[in-house]
Every structure is written in C-alpha cells, then in structure tokens.
Amino acid sequence: xxxxxxxxxxxxxxxxxxxxxxxxxxxxxxxxxxxxxxxxxxxxxxxxxxxxxxxxxxxxxxxxxxxxxxxxxxxxxxxxxxxxxxxxxxxxxxxxxxxxxxxxxxxxxxxxxxxxxxxxxxxxxxxxxxxxxxxxxxxxxxxxxxxxxxxxxxxxxxxxxxxxxxxxxxxxxxxxxxxxxxxxxxxxxxxxxxxxxxxxxxxxxxxxxxxxxxxxxxxxxxxxxxxxxxxxxxxxxxxxxxxxxxxxxxxxxxxxxxxxxxxxxxxxxxxxxxxxxxxxxxxxxxxxxxxxxxxxxxxxxxxxxxxxxxxxxxxxxxxxxxxxxxxxxxxxxxxxx
Length: 337
Description:
alpha/beta, 6-stranded parallel beta sheet, 5-stranded parallel beta sheet, 11 strands
C-alpha cells in the first residue's frame, strides 16, 4: 500500500508539540513538518526579519526548527517537496496557496484574542485576517474540519460564524490532562503566580506598571512568582518587576504548568495557561470573564486529544471524496468514541 503524505504546519513551540503528538498516530503514513509560512509579501517580510515577533520568524521559528532537529522529524519547509494527501495546521490566519486544494484540518491552539475594535475593522472591511491576530482564528473557512477544545469553544466559534458541521470537539493536546502536572519538582509551593504576556512585543498596548501593582495588591503579602512569556524582552520585564515588587521571584524559563500546579493563585491577562489553573481548581484571575473561561476550558480526556484529532484525519484520508463532500458527522463521532 502506498504511504500517504501528511504535512504538519507548526508555529510556536506549543503548536509544534501539538502537531508532533498528532503525527504519532500516522504510523503507516509519512509525516512531514514545516514551520509556519505565508506567500508573497508576507513571505518576503518574514524572510527579511520584519515578522520576527510572530510565528513566521524570530525565536518562534528558531525554537520550532530546533525541535524538529531534536526529534529527528522530516522537514519540508513550506511544503514544496511533496504532493500532500492531508494537511494539519495550527492556525488559519494565513492559508498558503499550495494547500488550498488539499484536505485541511485546523487544530485550535488555545485561547483566542479578545474581539476588540481591530477585530471588527478587519472582519467587516475584509482585511487580511492576520492583522487581528488570533481573534480571527477559524474564520477562513478554508479547512475541512476544525478540532476544538470544548463544547464551550464550539459555541464560541459558531457565534463568530464558523460552520457548525466543520467543528469537532476533540480536546487539544497540552491542555487535556492537567492533573499530570501535579507530579513535578518545582521547588516552590503556595504562592501567587503571575504569567505575563508578550503584548508589547506584538505591538499591542499594555500598561505593565499598572498590572504589576494590581498583582501586588491581589497577592496581599503572599510570595509572588512572575513567569515571563517566552517572547518577552526579559531584561525590560525583570527590571520593571524588581522596581515595583522587589521581593518577587522572576522566571524567564521553566515549566509553566508545573508552576501553576504548585501555586495557590494564578493571575493572567489573556493567556491560555489560565485553563490549566481552572482544570486544577486554582483561584484564577484573568481579563476575560471567569464564567466564560470555565465554560470554554478544554475537556480533560487523560491526554487522548492527539489521537482523537488523528482519527479525524484518518477518516478524511480514507474517504475518496473531495473535502466538501465529507459530511458524515455521525461517522466521525463514532470514530472519536
């Protein structure tokens, strides 16, 4: 039997590890990997370093390519060397031209950005989706199925206009087995953990001084640990924290999930890590509505999301029909059970 070729389009390290986990269930097929990419002016800008703040370049791409080497994965940058039978992608803000005639499965990475005024401008003026960042995730309609984290997220994406028949609740890798993080060797316990964002590095507004002061007030004298976003300017962020909260500990690296498992209180603004805190029953604070977050928390299925997402792909591969004719959702539900 001829081996089918699957392309996994990765992005951040979180997205890359998700894709790698899914690929492990295609034992009888060829799995190839690429970092995130675009066409035309986007590609030229990425190659010139102008998009190093995004998953198209800079630290994100370097970390992803190092991951490919570490795990000896087959790399086909931009998917140009093979004719693929199936493509998995971690985001549809950009859908490259060379996969638009392929069967495509979109996988939710985590939380989406708030629907601010940029979202509405981009949406109603039909500007490129990437201008509004992840608030536009799922809205390309250039995929066969969209594997999402929970029933809450399914409702969320339907409200935004995604076709219900394309949404499948599979859970998402890295967020589907929070209890595993309770077994860790992080040395601190019973503290207030603050997970910062890379808003300023991605040209969004943030009053960091105000945020740090709010965190200090919420901590009420309890030990505070700041975990910096991987894409942050470490020197600047550390200096700001040391000025306002000199007794706080600052980590720029380390396993964030282990830190969450050991904390009493988790404070974030717009970070997906809040879902790990909720799943572990922590007191959480976020700029999003807490009731909405609880409703959308990724299902906990003991780490089987990658396999469930792979089954969706295998079902799609086994169909001889074109992608838009594969609508037997009951068959898919059976495959996922």
